[in-house]
Write a structure and sequence with these properties.
By secondary structure, the chain is of the alpha+beta class. 35% of the residues lie in helices and 25% in strands. It has a 6-stranded antiparallel β-sheet with strand order 1-2-3-5-4-6, sandwiched between helices.
């Protein structure tokens, strides 16, 4: 029942986010620090949803994280917030091998397509990072 036990609870959340992320197109990573960029701050999924004009659906909460789904004019996306940086980093380590694009802030992640994440980044700040398979040829897994 050590650290691995809580990862078992993350599996449904991870699989849901990964399923959303799998069909994403290849892209390149974006860097933060551009002029006029919003500073990302820790936030609950409710606060993230308010900042992006979303009414959350499918909300789930487990010990270390909460998840909700959004659909707005910006696109469809999954919001996750974590109680610790360690929990968020563990989740990202588990999610990245599945591929996908992630907008990452302090103790929160949004999962969606590149275009949607680029728009959300204007409201939330953060940095867009990519999982496996986002190279130009789509063949590498790292």
């Amino acid at each position: 029942m050590g650290p691995r036990h809580h990862l078992g609870l993350l599996r449904p959340v991870l699989l849901c986010a990964a399923a959303l992320a799998l069909p994403l197109a290849a892209g390149c990573s974006a860097k933060s620090g551009a002029s006029g960029e919003k500073d990302a701050k820790p936030a609950s999924i409710q606060r993230l949803a308010e900042q992006t004009g979303c009414a959350l659906t499918g909300k789930r909460k487990v010990k270390d994280l909460e998840q909700g789904n959004c659909k707005t004019a910006q696109g469809r996306y999954v919001l996750l917030s974590f109680t610790t940086d360690q929990g968020m980093n563990a989740w990202l380590d588990e999610a990245k091998p599945w591929g996908g694009a992630y907008l990452v802030g302090p103790r929160w992640v949004a999962v969606s397509e590149d275009k949607t994440l680029t728009t959300l980044r204007k409201d939330l700040g953060g940095e867009i990072v990519y999982g496996a398979g986002h190279d130009m040829g789509g063949m590498n897994h790292g």
